[in-house]
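Annual report, structural modelling task.

Input specification for the tryptophan complex:
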Amino acid sequence: MSSEAKNRVLSGMRPTGRLHLGHYHGVLKNWVKLQHEYDCYFFVADWHALTTHYEDPKVIRDSVLDMVIDWLAAGVNPANAKLFIQSGVPQHAELHLLLSMVTPLGWLERVPSYKDQQEKLRERDLATYGFLGYPLLQSADILIYKAGSVPVGEDQVAHVELTREVARRFNHLYGREPDFEEKVDTAIRKMGKKNAKLYRKLRKDYQEKGDQEALQVARALLDGQGNLALGDRERLWGYLEGGGRIILPEPAALLTPAAKMPGLDGQKMSKSYGNTIALRDDPGDIEQKLRTMPTDPARARRSDPGDPARCPVFPLHEVYSDEARKQWVREGCTTAGIGCLECKQPVIEAILAELAPIRERALEFAQDPQLVRNILREGGEAARDVAEETMDEVRAAIGLNY
Ligand code: TRP
Ligand code: SF4
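The model returned the following structure:
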């Protein structure tokens, strides 16, 4: 992996509805943090949404801008991350097509989400070519930016794994230029006498003695060579391990800590369970949802003691309350010392306080959709530049540069 790839992060989200607190705690807070640490690319995966919603694409169209508004409201900052729409970068589709040539059908059929989703979404006909290719399109999304890290949840790890295999196969098939050794030689000489000698020695130490440290040092040496063209750097990177040129570096999954955000019924917050609080829900509605959410059924009357372990409110305290307040709940609940509304009050206040600035920012962006479109346009331009650069290399590697 070259240093450039290590520092680039890419992630996408399907536009299929309003975002809720589960997205905020599970994904967006992480993106906001990552944008300060990496060169981040975040995109709206509208083509991916189309693989399951091809019969009713209106929801996609209606969700794209709102979703990006929710990202911005949550603190994703276009000054720190490129934001764009997948279908605005047609190079994703071109790479997807070329990758499809080298991807065995069995690799796609074996991706766990393929059968899982088909069974889960029985009301949709997902026996389509596009749906089978879902994870390969995702591979193209990732590889076209040579992203080093892909922040995803557990359910997407298999897709990143497939991406690695496809990249490896692609590099194996097309990374061997006929004049590879010659080009490597020229590139090594560009580093200057001293560094060239050091590079050759480190490579030898790694190849002959399996010296991992030599490999690391050699990679660091390459990273420090500002005057090497990208193609040469990748050749020398590949040459270290003996193979050909690495055209598409393998990404790593950056596993997002499992979203702990519970919904209004104690299950994980999710649109399909109908237990969500949307980021832009009206504060009055949020309060109402929380006041009426179920509690431990044992507390039919105020004087009945309860058990926080059997109550969906307590998981919310786990997110929003410190130890002292959780102790207050345990004590008050099991002794019927507090009422359920009293118990819910601090959670209601914490959620309203958390969402107030998000809602306010969202409403501002919603009033200026042109600003949001401009952000997406600029992000799209930057993304296309990088994507086209990769496609140039990819086309050349296959020989499609007539
Ligand atoms: N499949 C992802 C999801 O459902 C969305 C996605 C599409 C994605 N392309 C991606 C995520 C590339 C990470 C990287 O959540
Ligand atoms: Fe749930 Fe709190 Fe009521 Fe106990 S007091 S049942 S934890 S809402």
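Strands lie at 8-13, 39-44, 81-85, 149-152, 252-255.
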